[in-house]
Fold these 2 entries.
Entry 1:
Amino acid sequence: MPAPRALGERRPLLPRGTRGPRRWRRAAGAAVLLVEMLERAAFFGVAANLVLYLNSTNFNWTGEQASRAALVFLGASYLLAPVGGWLADVYLGRYRAVALSLLLYLVASGLLPATAFPDGRSSFCGEMPASPLGPACPSPGCPRASPSLYCAPVLYAGLLLLGLAASSVRSNLTSFGADQVMDLGRDATRRFFNWFYWSINLGAVLSLLVVAFIQQNISFLLGYSIPVGCVGLAFFIFLFATPIFITKPPMGSQVSSMLKLALQNCCPRLRQRHLARDPQGARLWPDQRSPQPGPSPQEDIANFQVLLKILPVMVTLVPYWMVYFQMQSTYVLQGLHLHIPNIFPANPANISTALRAQGGNYTIPEAWLLLANVVVVLILVPLKDHLIDRLLLRCKLLPSALQKMALGMFFGFASVIVAGVLEMERLHYIHHNETVSQQIGEVLYNAAPLSVWWQIPQYLLIGVSEIFASIPGLEFAYSEAPRSMQGAIMGIFFCLSGVGSLLGSSLVALLSLPGGWLHCPKDFGNINNCRMDLYFFLLAGIQAVTALLFIWIAGRYERATQGPASHSGFSRDRG
């Protein structure tokens, strides 16, 4: 039976025959998946080599400063998700929120290619200040003056706007796509989320294979122009598919009601002031009051209780996100200090004149190691959807979403442990003065003779952890929320993953202070005097402790939802 139409809801404009509804619903879902693939291609095109871009001679940021900026951008792209969701719920609706977010995305992404060439950089940032000349440092332990970050206000403002646009697309396009296939049944919605995640990683593959190679070996100007083109194409496809979309009007947000309820429970004085302002309404029972648009007070209380149960589960997943986002920041920085082989041997006989003019060889982009993570997801998601889950379900061994999330946290722990062991081995070569000089882009790195391929296990483990932690986490946030709060709780889920990225950035900043493990001389971004291995082991310890806490909280949650409360009215209304 089709879902009831909400007031102001617009159904597809195109005519449909007997088989039309399913065909047009699938076409609308496919359009959403294509838009998501292109948006993610643009996002990874920006994020994959952001550390290398800021660490280049264009800006001369140190490795720690570039990693911190990358973590801030990644965190903002998740942390600001509730903002876009709130605007869609209250003012815009999901369709207009996605369209306007893609337009902001298009404008903000143009800042990076604009700063990739000298004239554009000087227009936005001014001239780069010259390094001050001074006497040499008399002793190895003397403090060094840290130069101010060139173009930091412009770049951080652009990255935050880009993060806002990406987070708004993320929070609204997910639910908007689910709206398109909702009439096809619950199983269609579940499978949509699987293929939505698959589209994310397909976009990442296209971006990493092409964009990362161009950025590292040819030109950051061309490399950062491609994401702008991807966003422009996504915007065009989204507008072109408008006639087949189901669009729903803004229905209001429960954020204000939740905040009022929480403040009244925490601060009885606020409740007394409210009663003093409305004494007549205070004497009436909820059923006797005049009907108001939006959820009733009873629904507010029930939804608030659900939020109190779900929130601790999602909060204990934050340290996992701290580990997860290392693959786009410190893992990249570590890879730049391992030996990266050339794709072509030096001056081979069959190399073209153009290649020889550019230096004779190309190095493998360090960001390509992210493909190990992405390929695992691309292979395992269809395998899991069509084979593993069905087999486990037939044998009645299919684990719950919370059990999968705990397993994912274990694989994340294993990934950061492997990264720490590799960093110890890298530093062993460095301390014995066994280094190789390699030029990546315009920067010369003193790398250990260990091959960068040794990073593959840590990327593979992160990919497996993503299958078990991230996708079930998305399903948990969507399925356990009451229907009237699905958008809000999905926004909270993405927001908390952004909190994990920002906590990782804060930890890097703290450990980069004098005396910290990541404090080392600013020798053109090299990290050979830092103890990043201890940073990885610290993350592993945090992940291990919170994984145990997660198992305890998840166990309590499952016991509570299996009790009498699970048969209440608000539980039956879950999507």
Note: Residues 20-126+151-243 form a domain with the Growth Hormone; Chain: A; fold (CATH 1.20.1250.20).
Entry 2:
Amino acid sequence: MDSRVSELFGSAGSQATNGAASRKTAKNGSKKCKNRSARYPKASNNSPYLPPEAEEGNIEYKLKLVNPTQYRFEHLATQMKWRLQEGRGEAVYQIGVEDNGLLVGLSEEDMKASLKTLRRMAEKVGADITVLREREVDYDSDEPHRIAEVLVRKVPDDQQFLDLRVAVLGNVDSGKSTLLGVLTQGELDNGRGRARLNLFRHLHEIQTGRTSSISIEILGFDSKGVVVNYSESRTAEEICESASKMITFIDLAGHHKYLKTTIFGLTSYCPDFAMLVVSANTGIAGTTREHLGLAMALKVPIFIVVSKVDLCTKSTVERTVRQLERILKQPGCNKVPMLVSSTDDAVTAAQKFAQSPSITPIFTLSSVSGESLDLLKVFFNILPPLSNSKEQEELMQQLTEFQVDEIYTVPDVGTVVGGTLYSGICREGEQLVVGPTDDGKFRELTVCSIQRNRSGCRVLRAGQAATLALGDFDRSLLRKGMVMVSPEMNPTICWRFEAEIVLLFHAKTFHKGFQVTVHVGNVRQTATVEALQGKDELRTGEKAVVRFRFIKHPEYLKVGAKLLFREGVTKGIGQVTKLQPASQYQHQP
């Protein structure tokens, strides 16, 4: 696939071809509209089977839960606790379904009794239930039989809410910041960008209306699936206290001028999902294709939002969706587009999307009229985490490693660093070492306090993003791309490293001595190509093992890390295969 991702980074030729194709499509539009339902996979409401129940995971099938004995009830509650643990605080119960996946269905009386028992079980384990959808099963009996799909979510305790990070991508002026403003503040836009004003961090962003930096917004859901941002003037701290599930949006820049910031946001902030926003009236333009290619190169699952549908006719929206569908089905993508047009679709899309990376949900909505915004909220509410509790536990048992993405000086607090805890557990008062400095050393420091989403937190667990206060530690010794690790870790730092790369796009030939900007996780630095194994030069689409050397200072890298490099129109992806340690780890007090 990698060699074909280059098609997404696009040259003028491929866009011209698409232009011709879209003109052809316009002629055949009426024919294709009839076949529209055939092209998008939809959940068949009357399919007699679901996949058999899995031993692991957070999905449980129950035929019925009518008047269980006390012993049986205790067993069911323990089972629910296990399913919640597997889903990191969330589980889905299918009522009226046998363990082999056969849709049997229940009468109305049995369904009411089963949901009542389920509610009692949830109360016992400290959770709430929400019925996602009910549907009838077609059988010959006179009495209708139904099955129900129920979301069980833990009530938050001690700030251990489920946190999913979503990177927001798309071309400039496609409506990314406006959509986030509407989602997180609960007020529709006025058509002139009022909703996005609170998201901007700089004066020039307000004046031009273009995002140039990375801003973070949060959307909280309580245990019943109700959005908690929208009540009167909620602070981030109050949202965290009452939310069981948090969606953290990473608003990235759309303009090509700020591409390095967008790449840094994708590589450093470790998003779980990416949301590609496409304007319905302009279609696939500017950096849209490139952003889609970046997300795919970094293997971030992506879903698409077609915005501004209030500005154009239905046929224009359909043309944009067809254009997207064609790109998603290209050999480089191999995605299966899934148009979401009802609540039922949104529930199915959320579950299928997390299970299969090839499914790509497409939403069509407006931030001004509010059309289909509720479907996107339903999708976010149900979207399950990618990693299960077992993987999370394994990461937490490793040594502490915190990636530094942002550095601030806060009055009366001192130096503060923002970033993501990659592995281990970090507590207040913990002694760590930070580096590497320009001379390749690590310095000792103490974590004074921790904040997540602007509210205090005593313990930070692997995969969580936070800001750490470092007291009077000298800010000039810190830079983006550093790591804070346990003193026992003995980290490997290097000037030189080897990587297996694919050259996605290059105007001429890629050879020894060429300089590129390398992105590996939170590391962003210029490096020189020192050698190409077995080749003198590389052309677009070719693979090779290349040795790079950093220009300014050594960096902390890991074998197997994803790598992305760029220089002007030159772009490539790869994986770090070998490190050449600069010197053995040494730290200074």
Note: The chain has four domains: 59-154, 162-386, 390-485, 493-584.
